[in-house]
C-alpha cells in the first residue's frame, strides 16, 4: 500500500520520490527492465535506435536500452533516483544522458526527437500524465514508437499495489485521446502478474499501449 492522498498532496513529487529512493536499499522496481518494454523491443518491426525514457526512476530501463546499443536520454523528477541511475550506468558500462526535471514544466529542445519514447509507471495526477503523453507523442521521430505501461483504473479495486488515488490511474480512453496523431499498435487493459522489484509484484491491472508516429 502506498501513501495516502493527503500525504501525497502535501509534498512535491520531487520530495516524495527523493525520500522513497533515498530509503531504498535495492532498486525500487528491480534491476531488470520492464517486461512490456522488452516485449515491444523484441517485435520484428521495432527498429528504433534512440530512446527517451520519461520518469525513468533509478535507471533500469534506460540502462538496459543503452546496453542494447541504443542512444538513450532519460529524465526523472528525483535527483536521488538520477544519481542512483548514473551509478547503475557506470556499473553496466553504458552511457545515458540523464536529466533531473519535472514533467510538469520540462520541454525538450525544439530540434530534438527520438525513435522511441517510453512512459512506464508514471504515477502522477492526470494533468501531469496527460501533458507527459502529449509531449511524448510530439517528440517522436517519423515512424517512432510510444511505449506506455501503468496501473489501470481497475487497480483501484485491488489494494495490493499502486496508487490509492484513482486520478493517478490510467485508462485506454485517456491514452487514445492524448495521442491522436499516432497509429495504435497495441492498446490493452487487463490483468498481468508483475515481477518488477519488491513493490510491483503479483497480480495487477494495467494498461499496455504502443503506438507509432506515421512515417
Ligand atoms: C513508479 S516509478 C517508475 C520508475 C521507472 N519508470 C521504472 O519503471 O522503474 C515512477 C517515477 O516517476 C517519477 N515521477 C513522478 N512524478 C514525476 C514528474 N512530475 N516528472 C518526472 N518524473 C516524475 C518518480 O520520480 C519515479 O521515479
Runs in which pLDDT lies below 50 for 5 or more consecutive residues are: none
**How many distinct beta strands?**
7
Number of domains: 1
Work out the strand percent: 25-35%
Summed over residues and divided by their number, the pLDDT gives a mean of 94
The assigned CATH architecture is: 3-Layer(aba) Sandwich
| DSSP helical segment count | 7
Order of strands, widest sheet? 3-2-1-4-5-7-6
CATH topology, by name, is Rossmann fold
**Which hetero ligands occur in this complex?**
S-adenosylmethionine
The global form is globular
Please, what is the CATH homologous superfamily? Answer: Vaccinia Virus protein VP39
Please identify the top-level CATH class. Answer: Alpha Beta
**What's the SSE pattern?**
HHHEHEHEEHEHEE
Distance between the termini: 43 Å
Largest sheet: 7 strands, mixed
Structure description:
31% of the residues lie in helices and 29% in strands. With 215 residues, it is of the alpha/beta class. The chain has one domain: Vaccinia Virus protein VP39 (Rossmann fold, 3-Layer(aba) Sandwich), CATH 3.40.50. The chain has a seven-stranded mixed sheet with strand order 3-2-1-4-5-7-6. Helix 6 links the parallel strand 4 and strand 5. The chain binds S-adenosylmethionine (SAM).
Keywords:
alpha/beta, binds S-adenosylmethionine, seven-stranded mixed β-sheet, Rossmann fold, 215 residues
Sum this structure up briefly.
The chain has 215 residues and is α/β, with parallel strands linked by helices. 31% of the residues lie in helices and 29% in strands.
Amino acid at each position: 500500500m502506498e501513501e495516502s492522498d493527503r500525504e501525497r498532496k502535501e509534498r512535491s513529487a520531487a520530495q516524495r520520490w527523493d525520500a522513497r529512493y533515498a530509503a531504498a536499499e535495492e532498486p525500487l522496481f528491480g534491476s531488470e527492465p520492464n517486461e512490456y518494454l522488452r516485449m515491444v523491443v523484441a517485435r520484428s518491426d521495432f527498429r528504433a535506435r534512440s530512446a527517451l525514457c520519461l520518469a525513468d526512476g533509478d535507471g533500469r530501463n534506460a540502462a538496459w536500452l543503452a546496453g542494447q546499443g541504443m542512444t538513450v536520454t532519460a529524465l526523472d523528477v528525483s535527483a536521488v533516483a538520477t544519481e542512483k541511475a548514473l551509478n547503475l550506468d557506470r556499473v553496466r558500462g553504458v552511457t545515458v544522458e540523464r536529466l533531473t526535471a519535472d514533467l510538469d514544466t520540462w520541454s525538450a529542445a525544439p530540434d530534438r526527437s527520438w525513435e522511441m519514447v517510453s512512459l512506464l509507471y508514471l504515477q502522477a495526477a492526470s494533468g501531469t500524465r496527460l501533458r507527459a503523453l502529449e509531449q511524448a507523442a510530439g517528440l517522436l521521430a517519423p515512424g517512432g514508437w510510444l511505449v506506455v505501461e501503468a496501473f489501470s483504473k481497475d487497480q483501484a479495486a485491488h489494494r495490493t499495489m499502486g496508487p490509492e488515488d484513482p486520478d493517478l490511474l490510467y485508462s485506454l480512453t485517456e491514452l487514445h485521446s492524448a495521442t491522436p496523431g499516432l497509429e495504435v499498435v497495441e492498446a490493452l487493459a487487463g490483468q498481468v502478474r508483475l515481477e518488477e522489484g519488491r513493490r510491483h509484484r503479483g497480480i495487477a491491472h494495467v494498461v499496455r499501449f504502443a503506438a507509432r508516429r506515421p512515417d
